[in-house]
Design goal:
Helices cover 37% and strands 16% of the residues. By secondary structure, the chain is of the alpha/beta class. The chain folds into two domains: 193 residues, Rossmann fold (3-Layer(aba) Sandwich); 182 residues, Phosphoglycerate kinase, N-terminal domain (Rossmann fold), CATH 3.40.50. The structure holds adenosine-5'-diphosphate and magnesium ion. Adenosine-5'-diphosphate binds next to β14 and α13.
Length: 419
């Protein structure tokens, strides 16, 4: 790959130049209050480096999924937006984190954005309103997306540049992620560059033994990654809600546990094909209802009674998984082992995470991918620096590991563009 980085751009000099930055500032909000500013904090260094070097920085970001009822193209008229999805609280928090004033434009590429961009002086930071307020951002029509990309580039005077720093969105072919890169000199920001480096380590010449731990709710979400990684790794540990479809595939009764009937055949095939690679739990913590205060007990996977559901892996399984992980030199973990949101069913996720942290302490390279897995690390009070890397983009890292081309990365790669 031939991708230029932020360092290259700073080397060329950015003083007085307008730099469009795509960041991932899609933070969880509760009634207008940011409940986890993680993505804002992670995005700050790239923005800060540009502002410090005297660039006029225009940040593009989205929040949630604005609905565009019956309108596929054109501008969303100002004011016709869900105010709950305004970036206003994000602008305030970003300013606080950067320690400098962050202006918020009242629109995406409208009058206010244009006027404010013209008024920028060196070192200023302007955040455009939620880029997805403009329906062209996510349009499937190339011409519509290109039109928005052109309007974004119109905010830039003279020799501007584009920095892609929202790793969580690089798997999306969207105007501010993909199309702008074709119109301006383009660079990978710190976050994107770091993520790509990590993912390359998980796919090329990875140190062995290589263990992958998969959990979470649905097999269907993880099927492509299982198929891509199973042939390449030494062990594939499976837990979480997706595990019960594998149990059902062995003809074992799963009670009311999560089970995807339509995936049973596929799971059966995977278990046969990768018998020496796949490891599954032998005991589980079951509950009589899906709730934090449900009645619970630990049983063998062969003994899940009717009416009960598995909400966590059991202590024997944690022990066995920990033994496997302790010898690993490369570990990729995606998906909690149980419903960690309920303290009663968090021990499996915590135990496996601690085993990965221990392996990391002994020199393993470990990566956590997936929004809920990263949230589990924080919620369970585990040290974030106990892992080599916690990915900021769950969907994007999975697609990369599945071997898919990420549009937002290939658009930065001049070899791909020329070739
Ligand atoms: P990630 O975001 O890390 O990729 P997923 O989105 O695939 O993870 O899955 C996370 C969700 O899976 C969590 O909300 C968790 O409660 C749920 N989950 C884990 N184990 C079970 C289970 N046994 N039954 C139902 N849900 C489960
Ligand atoms: Mg998730």
């Amino acid at each position: 790959m031939a991708v230029k980085t932020l360092e290259d751009l700073l080397g060329e000099g950015v003083e007085g130049r307008t730099v469009l930055v795509r960041s991932d500032l899609n933070v969880p909000l509760d009634n207008g209050t940011i409940t986890d500013p993680g993505r804002i904090i992670a995005s700050a260094p790239t923005i800060s480096a540009l502002a410090e070097a005297g660039a006029k920085v225009i940040v593009m970001a989205h929040l949630g999924r604005p609905v565009h009822s019956g309108r596929s193209a054109g501008f969303a008229p100002a004011g016709d937006w869900d105010p709950a999805l305004s970036l206003a609280p994000v602008a305030a928090k970003l300013g606080e984190v950067l320690g400098r004033n962050v202006q918020l434009a009242g629109d995406v590429v409208g009058q206010d954005a244009l006027a404010r961009s013209e008024g920028l002086t060196d070192g200023d930071v302007l955040l455009l309103e939620n880029i997805r307020f403009d329906p062209r951002e996510t349009s499937k029509d190339d011409a519509e997306r290109e039109a928005l990309a052109k309007a974004l580039v119109d905010l830039v005077d003279g020799d501007g540049a584009f920095v892609s720093d929202g790793f969580g969105v690089v798997h999306r072919k969207q105007a501010s992620v993909y199309d702008v890169a074709k119109l301006l000199p383009h660079y990978a920001g710190n976050l994107v560059a770091a993520e790509v480096e990590v993912l390359q380590k998980l796919t090329q010449d990875s140190e062995r033994p290589y263990a992958v731990v998969l959990g979470g709710s649905k097999v269907s979400d993880k099927l492509a990654v299982i198929e891509a990684l199973a042939p390449k790794v030494d062990t594939l540990v499976i837990g979480g809600g997706m595990y019960y479809t594998f149990l059902a595939a062995q003809g074992i009764s799963v009670g009311n546990s999560l089970c995807q009937e339509e995936m049973i055949g596929t799971c059966k095939e995977l278990l046969e094909r990768y018998a020496d690679v796949i490891h599954i739990p032998q005991d589980v913590v079951i509950a009589d209802s899906f709730s934090a205060d449900a009645e619970s007990k630990t049983v063998s996977v062969l003994e899940i009674p009717d009416g009960w559901m598995g909400l966590d892996i059991g202590p024997q399984s944690v022990k066995r998984f920990a033994a496997i992980l302790s010898g690993a030199k490369t570990v990729f973990w995606n998906g909690p082992m149980g419903v960690f949101e309920f303290p009663k069913f968090a021990a499996g996720t915590k135990g496996v995470a601690e085993a990965i942290i221990e392996a990391t302490g002994k020199g393993a390279f470990s990566v956590v991918g997936g929004g809920d897995s990263a949230a589990a690390v924080r919620q369970l009070g585990l040290p974030e620096d106990g892992f080599s890397h916690i990915s900021t983009g769950g969907g994007a890292s999975l697609e990369y590991l599945e071997g898919k081309t990420l549009p937002g990365i290939s658009a930065l790669d001049d070899q791909t563009l020329e070739g």
